[in-house]
Amino acid sequence: MEMGEPSEIDHHHLDSATATATASTTATTHHLNVPAGLSQHEFDDLKHLVFQFHTYELRPGQCSSLLSQLIRAPRDVVWSVVRRFDKPQIYKHFIKSCSVAEDFIMTVGCTRDVYVISGLPAATSTERLDILDDDQYVTGFSITGGDHRLRNYRSVTTVHEMERDGQIWTVVLESYIVDVPEGNTEEDTRLFADTVVKLNLQKLTSVTEGMARAAAAAAAAAAAAATATATATAATTTAAGIKYNSDISGHICKI
User: Fold this and answer.
1) Could you tell me which of 57, 94, 118, 166 has the fewest CB atoms within 10 Å of its CB?
2) Does domain 8-212 have CATH number 3.10.450.50?
3) What is its main location (predicted)?
């Protein structure tokens, strides 16, 4: 588990670099609203985790959202992709490249420079890793600089196992908080950010389900090869036994 301050996992999303002591805030209620893709019963099992990791203090002029994605792949496979702070382009759309320092170590406080494809209202984004907890499958980052309009953007992603229709699925929850740019409405800002997150989660699904299928195919091939080897060995042993018995019988007849 990698963390900064001891209380960062539980409280980092309640802090804001731009908040003032006199600013009025309102806590988000993501834990009270079922995100698309989950049933009420399924969400009830995750509600306490949503409250713990996906609660923010909203200041005037900010918006927040929580999105979910069901993935037919083992949680460890999904987490292996989500945790790669240095490789966001593996599953995130609109990223042309990502660079980190030569002596980069993936730990809380490290940064990355993300370069966005042309055509978007952004060019670069400098981002800081806020959380990386391999035990609880939680990660999160904040945007600290760059040429873009997502000021004070912070995001948290959690990865969970869930049973549905007798099968084990992975559900990914991703939330964010961001300033509403001047000249934009809260609805417009949330629509834009939600769209980007949804597209990223859909690509994450495609990537990790492909990885899971490839791993399953490799395991099946290995099992088939092992079975074939065992069958061939058994056949060879049987043939040798038959020949041995035949030789013995011939020898007895001669006697």
Assistant:
1) 166
2) no
3) cytoplasm
